[in-house]
Amino acid sequence: MNKEQKLKELVQQKYADIAMQDKATNETSCCGSGGCTTEVYNIMSDDYSRLEGYHPDADLGLGCGLPTQFAQIEPGDLVIDLGSGAGNDCFIARRETGETGKVIGIDFTPAMIDKARANAQKLGYNNVEFRQGDIERMPLTANIADVIVSNCVLNLVPNKDGVFKEIYRVLKPGGHFSISDIVLEGDLPPALQQAAEMYAGCVAGAIQKHDYLNLITANGFDNITVQKEKTIQIPEDILSNYLSPEEIMQFKKGNSSIKSITVYAQKPKEGNCCSPDCCN
Questions:
Q1: How confident is the model over 237-248, as pLDDT tens digits?
Q2: Nearest to 276 by CA among 162, 151, 188
């Protein structure tokens, strides 16, 4: 089994475990009996509760932004959510696209798909659909989506370039995405980079901010805009699982940082570019 496949299985197992719990349990049962502040994947989440369409049962506290708030979704749009989890962003998007539109959530973890479908059934939504699949090979035809959203998911995917190629393929000409994700400025300490738990928590899988934005450009997108940015502070009781006190001090005093960014970009309209390759 290659490294990429091992990482995918790690993420799938971790998020299957999370799907079996509610948000409160995820936030309080972290680190087993260690009593740490929280799991690393919870410290990044933003407050969704004020957004219309929010349903607490679908919010597992796993995001790092509010991409649907910035996604410029219009009534009647077809919206795709990559890494849809228990359905949180899909239900927010459904409020924006209305009954005349449609929302499709894609998730790699069967337990998450089951939870999202149960939530949609409970809410009586017949225009929100959930499909199990790998976002590097989306179970969707080309040129169908008006908007794609994703919340703290691409950093969990080893082949980020492949995902942006798929986003380009699936968006209609003139369609756009709004994605919240974790990026780096400067290098993480080696112990954090190598920790499997930090990968599943969206940190060790993050790449440099300039490389992330360059991937979007290289895949042919226009109008690239960072809509929101914030610095993520990892509490010392989490860092102490991987770093010595001296290493923690050096990390905090250094120039490296972990950022949550929400990025907008548009697929060119027909005639502007034949494919990502011709724009490079």
A1: 888 888 889 988
A2: 162
